[in-house]
C-alpha cells in the first residue's frame, strides 16, 4: 500500500511541476484541488499556494498588469490574494500547528527521493523551489511534514544535519550525493532530529512557503496598483539577499518578475527626500534590478525552449535572406510566443538602456542593448529582438558619432567573452547570465555605419516576416501593429542609406515592402522618393501616380512628378498636366506652394517653347511662361528661383537689360546660387565685356573650385581674352578635376550602366548639368537625344563598343571636356592633338551629334570640305535643329561652290542628300 502511495505521489508531483513549467494554470488548480481533497494533514498550505499561484497567473494572462486594468484587478484578484495570504503569517502557522497536534506517526522519517542515476549524471529532479533542486517527496507518510516549496534561498548549499539547528536539505546532489546516501542509511539520525526539533522544522517550512507567497503577492500588489505594498512584500522576502545560483525554470521566472516589479515600483514611488544623492542611488538600484530581470528573462526563455523541445525556428541562423519577399502566411502570428514573456518582463528588458540614457550614460546603454541582442534567440523573443535592434540603431544614429563610437570588440569586455553556454559556465561567471551566440563565423561590425545598417537590415527582415497580408477586418489591429513596426524600420533605413547614397539597397527594401503596403501611402511615398534619387525615373513616375491616387490633395508629389517629366523623362506635356493637378490641390493660403506650382508651370512652358520650332507657337508659349513666372513672383517675392528663371526667359528673348536686373535680384535673395552666378557671367560676356566676365568667373571659382560648369566658361573666356594656349591649361585642369570627382565613384559603382541608358532619355543631351533645386531649360532636341541613344545601342550590338559603366551624366560631362579641348586645339592649329581628343570622346559615346560636328570642324580646318560636309550632315541627321551644324554646313557649301563655280557643287550636294 505504501508503494502505491509513493507512485501516486510521484506522479502527482511530476504532473504539478510540468503544468507549472508549461503555465497550464487551469490544470495546476485542478491538481491542487485533488491534493487538498486528499485531506492529508500538512498538504493544505501547499494546495493553497498552488491555487493562489494558478488564479493569479491565469488572471494576469487574460488581463495584463497595466494601469488601465488596475481597477478591474482589485476585484478580480481577491481569490488569489486570499489563498496566498493563507500561506504567510498567522494563517499558515495555525494550519501547521493544528496538523501537528492532531497527527500521529510522527516518528516515521520523511522519505527523501533521489535517483542515483540522475545524481551521478548531473541531472536534477524538477523542483518548485527558487534555489533548491530537491525536496521531500509528496509520497511521505509523515503527516507532520509540510512540503517545502523553497529550499535555502540564502543558505549554504552544503547544509548538513545538526542537532542544534533546523534541518536543511542538500541542494547540490552532484557534489554531495555521498552525504545524502549516508543520511538514507542513518534513519536514527532523522528520527532523533524530528523528535527533538519538530517545531523548528515547521517554522522553516512555513518560512520557505512564505517566501514564494511573498514574491507572488508582490506581483499581485503591482497588478492592483499598490506599489508600496509590492515593495514591502519584496523586502520581507529578502530579494536583495538572494545568491546567484542555478535555478529551476519556473523559479527563474518568479525571480525575474520580482526584480522587474521592484524596478517598476521604485520608479513610481517618490523619494522621501528628493536629494541628488538619493536620486542617483535610486537610479542605480533600478538599473540593477532591470538588468537582473532582463538577464533572468532571457535565460528563462532559453531554458523554456529546451524544456518544450521546440527551439526557435526563427533564430538568427535561420533568418531569411535579404531577398525574402514577405511573410509566408497571410495571417498574423498567433501571439502565443509573446504571451510567454508577459508585459512585466518585456518592459523590464527595455527599461535598463532607457534609464542609462536618461542618466547620460549612452555608452552603457549601447552596451546593454548589445548584450541583449547577443543572447541566443528564443521563440518568445522574436518580436522583442526587432524592437531592441531598431532602438539600438536609433540610438547610434541620433546619439553617436564616428569619433565617439566604440565597436563591439572594443571599450570593455570582448564580444565573444560572454558567449559561453550556461551549462559550461566558468568559475566566477554568474549562472544568471543567458547563453550568447559564439563561434568563429560571427560577423562583428567594425564601424558605426556597418552596425547601423546591419541592425536595420536584420530588423527589416524580421518586420517583413511578421507582416500580415490578410486584409480581413478581424486582423486589422494586428495588421496595423505589424505595419507600424515595419514603417519605423523603413524610416530609419531611409535616413541611414540616403546619407550614404545607397539608393539601390533602399529600393530593394521598399520592393519587399510593397507586398504588405496595400493602400499605405507612407511606404509608397518613400518608395517613389527612393526611385527618384536612384535615377529609376520611369518607375518613380508610376509610383508617384499611385501616391497621387492615395493622396489626391497633396501637391508635393505632383510637383515631383512634374520635375521628373521635365528634367529626366522629356515628357513636357505630361509634366504640365502634373503642374495643373498641383495647382488644383493648392489652397490660396498655401502661398509658397502655389508660387512653386506657377514656377514649375513657367519652366514647363519655357521648355515647350524651346522645343517648338515654329516661331509663332514659341512666342506664344514664352508669353504664357512670363505670365506664370510673374504670378509666382507675386505670390512669393523672396524666391530666388523665380527671379532666376525670369532672367533666363528674358535672356532667351534677347532682353539683356531685364535679364541682368532679375539675375541680380536672384543673387540678392541668394548670393551663393551657382546658376545665377553662371547666368550673370554669360550675360556680361554677351555684352562683349570678356575681361569683367572672366574676373567674375575667377571670383566664383574661388567659392566653388570644383564647379566644372564655371571652369568651362572660364576656358571659353580665356580663349577670347588670352588665346587658346591659356584656355588649354584650364581644359587640362578640368580633366584632372573630373578624375578627382568621379573616378572613385565610377570604380565603386555597381549600378548597371544600361539601366541609366534605358531609363534616362537625356532631355538636354550632354550639356545638361542642372543642380538639385533647378531644372535646366537648354534648347537641345529631345528627339536628338533619343536618336543618339538608339544609334548607340545599334553600335553596341554590331561592334565591340560597350557603354561605359557608371553614371551616364559623368561620362557625358567628360565628353564635353574632351570636345572643348579638341576645339581649342583646332583653334591653335594642333590638329593631331584635336583628333586624339575627338577619338577619346568617340570611345565614350560615338553617336553624339556634338562629336559629329567636332569632326566636321576638324575636316573643315584641314580644308577637307567634302568630309566636313558629310560630318555636318550626319550631325543634322541625328539632330535636324542643331544650329552650329547648319551654319557650318552652309559655310562648307560656300567653299565648295567657290572651288567648283559651276553647277557641279549643287549636283554633288543634291546627290549626297539623296
From TrEMBL:
Keywords for the protein's UniProt record, in alphabetical order: TPR repeat
Pfam families referenced in this protein's UniProt entry, alphabetically: TTC7_N
TPR-type repeats, residues: 849-882
Regions of compositional bias (Low complexity) in chain numbering: 318-329, 421-430
Disordered: annotated segments: 93-126, 310-335, 403-433
Domain Tetratricopeptide repeat protein 7 N-terminal: 1-94, 211-508
GO cellular component terms attached to this protein's record: plasma membrane
Positions with biased composition (Basic and acidic residues): 93-104
Xref: SMART domains: TPR
GO biological process: phosphatidylinositol phosphate biosynthetic process; protein localization to plasma membrane
Gene3D superfamilies: Tetratricopeptide repeat domain
Function: Involved in endocytosis.
Family, similarity comment: Belongs to the YPP1 family.
Protein name: Tetratricopeptide repeat protein 7 N-terminal domain-containing protein
Taxonomic source organism: Petrolisthes cinctipes
